[in-house]
Amino acid sequence: MGAQVFKPSANSIAHVTILGIAIVPLTVGLSLAALSRSPANTKVNVPKNQPVPFSHQHHSWELGIDCRYCHGSVEKSGYAGLPSTETCMSCHSQIWTNSPLLEPVRQSYETNTPIKWNLVNKVPDFVYFNHSIHVARGVNCNTCHGPVNDMHITWKGNPFQMAWCLECHRAPERHLTKDPTRPDLSPRQQVFDLYWKLQTYGKTGFKDDGTKALSERELQLLKGEWNGSDKPEDIKSGKELVKELGVQVQQLADCAVCHH
Length: 260
Ligand code: HEC
Ligand code: HEC
Ligand code: HEC
Ligand code: HEC
Ligand code: HEC
Known about the structure:
binds heme C, globular, 12 helices, disordered N terminus
């Protein structure tokens, strides 16, 4: 059984755009597709029914399993991907083997049929999205997905409407930050390191000696409340990082970046 990877718009993966190419005329399909936009797609904060009540809170937060163990392609490709049944069975052939909740997982394994997870997040086919570039620039998963690592049943943390994407694309310096306590890590590594920190220091973010181990930003990310910063010192360091990473801010809001 191969890894089960959702590719809702696999055709767009080939179209790696070089930022700044001439704006491609928007097709008629764009507006037609918008008409058929499902209202369910904009629903946030509503847990989605799943064939197995998989809990990120248990697996990610309490057991501390790294996101990449299950979403292996998130830093390498456009798609984060969903775990195969084998990934679940790497543990559940040994633990919780009799749990009725895991019956669909055992069934899937025995019959060689992938579990049909219901996608929580999806942008319309006429929108191009790419995980790896965002992760490489240090945009944390929770910025877009809300407090996933603390969700029992997964829900959608943000509506993913155009205005929401553009809010960051027009001023990425409000969002890009370096972790002053881990200058040795790249922005990409800092995305994942945050979850280790959260696991170590918990929801209040204090060390044993009472000093604060997590910054305000980190705590906001944890709660899914981070929405960029307007503090002059953050904007200043954000701008430095934008420059260092070579982010092409002038072109980032061009239509062709997301529609092509
Ligand atoms: C690294 C080991 C590990 C992996 C991988 C893993 N689990 Fe688990 N899972 C556990 C442990 C340990 C528990 C018990 C957690 C607890 O109750 O605190 C658990 C509990 C569960 C439960 C609750 C069972 C019950 O009866 O309460 C479900 C459902 C579940 N896992 C589904 C999955 C699915 C689906 C996957 C694959 C996407 C998966 N797990 C991957 C270790 C793992
Ligand atoms: C043990 C495996 C496992 C780990 C570890 C894990 N996930 Fe997941 N994740 C899943 C499974 C299974 C699903 C599909 C079911 C669901 O939506 O809950 C999923 C779904 C998601 C979704 C929703 C996908 C959609 O349908 O649109 C997001 C977002 C997500 N995970 C983010 C994360 C992040 C961030 C981390 C690390 C903090 C993480 N996951 C760690 C197994 C895992
Ligand atoms: C800049 C915003 C953003 C960031 C950062 C982000 N995601 Fe996503 N994620 C999305 C969007 C948008 C979709 C829907 C993609 C689609 O429909 O093609 C999505 C979809 C997913 C899915 C569903 C399967 C898939 O590949 O489409 C998973 C799982 C997921 N994200 C996990 C993660 C994890 C883990 C991280 C952090 C390592 C992360 N995401 C970071 C915006 C983001
Ligand atoms: C928190 C900030 C943030 C959010 C939110 C965000 N982006 Fe981005 N996006 C970036 C940054 C930073 C880059 C990297 C630009 C660069 O390095 O030149 C980027 C790059 C991209 C690229 C170019 C990828 C490539 O391979 O050419 C696409 C496409 C994109 N984003 C789509 C989206 C979409 C669609 C959404 C909303 C669902 C979104 N982004 C939300 C910050 C963000
Ligand atoms: C950062 C990514 C991004 C950029 C840049 C962008 N869009 Fe969009 N656009 C989206 C997303 C995401 C949607 C889907 C919104 C939804 O599903 O609610 C969308 C939807 C649309 C729609 C359908 C109607 C609607 O509002 O949902 C049209 C038309 C559109 N975009 C035109 C444009 C034009 C024209 C530009 C350039 C001025 C542009 N877009 C730039 C991400 C982007």
